[in-house]
Design a protein that fits this description.
Strand content: 15-25%
Largest sheet: 6 strands, mixed
Structural class: alpha/beta
CATH topology: Nucleotidyltransferase, domain 5
Distance between the termini: 44 Å
Shape: globular
Strand order of the largest sheet: 5-4-1-2-3-6
Number of domains: 1
CATH class: Alpha Beta
CATH architecture: 2-Layer Sandwich
Number of strands: 6
């Protein structure tokens, strides 16, 4: 199974929700509301890692979105954070359950376009403020490696 992934509402824009959605023969979406994103940003700021929360959160939300899928052969993720793809991919692969058996080459980043079903699902969930699952800051933090404050 090949799935496409798109995001609506950037994670770094903490005044609006973010939706990450996937599509193939079926679809799912995950939403994190602005208040939860602000909690995440504050958590990472307290650790002295203010910018990294975006990429770690994206990877964890993606994991939470696909973790119950039984067979995934390939994931095509819309290019949201150019230059950060290796980091996102590594964080995601460290989270993926072994049953998915995904390797680095099974995850690619490219523009999937507005005609993609994943784009439509993400956009509608964003617009309606309703998704398959709702993610909290606590959900994301629970999957992150325990880090100490820098400095």
């Amino acid at each position: 199974m090949i799935i496409e992934v798109d995001q609506s509402g950037k994670l770094e824009k903490t005044s609006i929700p973010t939706v990450i959605a996937f599509s193939n023969s079926k679809h799912r979406s995950a939403i994190i509301f602005s208040g939860e994103k602000q909690k995440l940003e504050n958590h990472f700021r307290a650790l002295g890692k203010r910018r990294v929360y975006i990429y770690q959160s994206f990877a964890v939300i993606l994991f939470l979105l696909v973790k119950d899928e039984s067979i995934i052969q390939e994931i095509v993720i819309d290019t949201e954070y150019p230059g950060q793809e290796p980091l996102i991919k590594n964080i995601f692969l460290n989270l993926v359950d072994r049953k998915l058996k995904l390797d680095k080459q099974d995850i690619t980043f490219k523009q999937i376009g507005k005609k993609s079903n994943a784009h439509n699902i993400a956009y509608l969930a964003f617009k309606n403020r309703k998704a398959s699952i709702t993610i909290t800051a606590k959900d994301i933090i629970s999957y992150l490696p325990k880090t100490k404050k820098s400095g």
